[in-house]
Amino acid sequence: MLKFVFEYFFNFWWLILPFILGLIVWEKRLQTVRILYAQSIKWSYLELKTPLQVGKSIQSMEEIFSSLHSAFSKKSDYQRYIKGYLPPYFVFILFAHKGFLKFYIRTPENLKNFVKTRIYAQYPHAEINEVDDPINFLPPKSPNPLTNCFLAEMTLTKKEPYPIKTYKVWERAAEEERIDPLSFLSEGATQLNDDEWIIIQIYAMPVPAEDEDFGNKWVDKGKKEVNKIIGKKEEKEPSPLEMIGEFVWNLLRAPFVGVKWKEYKKDEKEISMQKLTPGERYVLEKLQEKLSKPGYWVSIRSLYFTFEPNFKEKLGRSLGLIFSFFKLYETQNMNAFKPSKTTSPSEVISPFTTKKSADVREFFQKRLMYLDFKSYSPPQEKFILNTEEMASIFHIPLETVPETTIEKAKITPRPAPPTVPEPDIF
Asked: What is the DSSP letter of 111?
């Protein structure tokens, strides 16, 4: 019987091959039109400066991210799959150089006023200036005989429904123990020479929970993780391989017997929350908190750039600064950031490659990543962060950050309204 099945399959492979090739061509075409669409977007760059004493919680920044989430626009299937439409996205930039930490936002030009009004609503005294591309000074190619760089794309250590540490943990701490992670970048900026830069790009596309193309139905995935923790068995969904196998099997059987599709039934099970440990209940609570807030499809890329010589001597100090910053978002039993091995120039090289060949391949891999960074090409690693997590990474600094290392806006005195009575003059 098995021999007959294989003979039947090999005789009719041409029925399945066009279907598979069609899917591959469709995906490649969709990637191409989306790249072309992204290249057609006109961008504006906003520099954000804040007053010397902000005196507001980071929750104000979370409110900004919540309001920016309304920029999402789904459009029709024709626009999405034929024209290559991409929902609006932003790039939030942390720029450390020469003793200062600066904040920039790359936004579609048609949304720049939308972004400004959202920031002014929470920080009326903030100064927002439209500037040129802050990384336009970077050379077209690096490494080169005069410059060198280090790049890393960040990913998560666990599945994306698990949250990272957020500002609410820091704000609950005692005042003397309260540490804003941006202090690591701001203090580290004082150690950077005039020829050194650390730049972090945070790509953020607001996505609704139910969107499959860009949000990947992240809330549904999160609910599955919740059910896994509490011991509730989900209705089993067939994997793509199982679906293809079932399709091929029914295709072979169709000429001889009736087609029968497998039913995936839900296995009901009584759930007892009392059986969960305190640690499991805490993780469950944090998972549900993350799922309750709007999400962003996020990618994070870091760059350390400097001039030769002595690149390796300077690199160690700066790498410690970058990874210490991301380390502060680590939460025990939940999530954290780590460098992506799939995009690291040194990790993509086979261990069987000779040293000379490995050095050449690493050089060109680093150049490709550098070009992607300079052109703001979205990184390969993507994951979901909610508004609370986004505000924890990019926010108006707390007062615990040294004032000398953050570029601040001067508070311009404004005259009182004419309705305010003037004091009597004696």
From this structure: G
Q: How many CB atoms lie within 10 A of CB 310?
A: 10
In the chain, what is the straight-line distance between the N-terminal and C-terminal CA atoms, in Å?
112
Rounded Cα gap, residues 59 and 392, in angstroms: 9
How many CA within 13 A on the CB side of residue 43?
21
**DSSP H or E run through 219:** helix 218-230
How is residue 223 annotated by DSSP? H
Contacts of 317 (CB under 8 A, 6+ apart): 191
Rounded Cα distance between 20 and 17, Å, is: 5
pLDDT along the chain (426 residues), means of 10: 60 70 85 87 92 72 94 86 89 92 95 94 90 95 92 92 90 73 80 90 92 82 84 65 66 63 56 72 88 94 90 85 90 89 60 69 88 89 93 78 55 50 44
Rounded Cα distance between 95 and 208, Å, is 29
Angstrom CA distances, 203 to 29, 35, 153, 346, 349, stand at 23, 15, 11, 24, 27
The amino acid that residue 318 corresponds to is S
Instruction: Give the C-alpha separation, 238 to 251, whole Å.
Output: 18
Residue of 39, 142, 138, 135 lying closest to 365 (CA atoms): 142
β-strand pairing of 100-108 with 43-49:
antiparallel
Q: What is the pTM of this model?
A: 0.81
Alpha-carbon distance of 67 to 2, in angstroms, equals: 60
Residue 265 φ/ψ, nearest 5 degrees: -95, 150
- Tokens standing for 23? 């899917």
Which contacts of 358-365 are long-range, i.e. CB under 8 A and separated by 24 or more positions? 363/143
b/e map 134-166, b = 16+ CB within 10 Å: bbeebeeebbeeebbbbbbbbbbeeebbbbbbb
**According to the 3-state scheme, what is the secondary structure of 238-274?**
CCHHHHHHHHHHHHHHCCCCCCCCCCCCCCCCCCCHH
For the chain, the farthest-separated pair of C-alpha atoms sits apart, in whole angstroms, at 112
- How far is 286 from 172, CA to CA, in rounded Å? 16
Spatial separation of the C-alpha atoms in residues 377 and 366, rounded to whole Å: 14
Q: Which residue in 64, 55, 45, 196 sits closest to 122, CA to CA? A: 64
Question: Phi-psi region for residue 333, left (φ > 0), alpha (ψ -120 to 50) or beta?
Answer: left
